[in-house]
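Hi all, long-time lurker, first post. I run a small reading group and we've been trying to get comfortable going from sequence to structure in the token notation. Rather than ask abstract questions, I figured I'd post a concrete chain and ask someone more experienced to write out its structure so we can walk through it together at our next meeting. Sequence below, copied exactly:
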Amino acid sequence: MNLILRLLLNALAVFILAHILNGVAVDGYIGAIIVAIVLAILNLLVKPILVILTIPVTIVTLGLFLLVINALIILLASNLLDGFSVSGFWTALLFSVLLSILQSILQSFLKDGKK
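-- Answer (accepted) --
Happy to help. Here is the structure in token form:
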């Protein structure tokens, strides 16, 4: 149940950011849910491989290269899905940072609800 709720909150975050940012578009609520599921799968399968392959660069940049990896995951999801588009790398980077912040805020409401 917690996984479904987290996916729905992530879909809400994607939907909100798609309406705020100019270079990001998503096709409705169902499209946002599909984007959240695809991002979760890509973060589970592809991201660890990219992190391991880029350890030297990540160390040299003091971890800032992980933002680039997140943007690449967003661009990959944009290429895989028809109902989700991101205009470029910098938009994907901004979307990634704002998505992380918004996910943290929304999931903090989950923690408050449990107490």
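A couple of things your group might point at:
Residues 2-114 form one domain.
The two ends are 17 Å apart (CA to CA).
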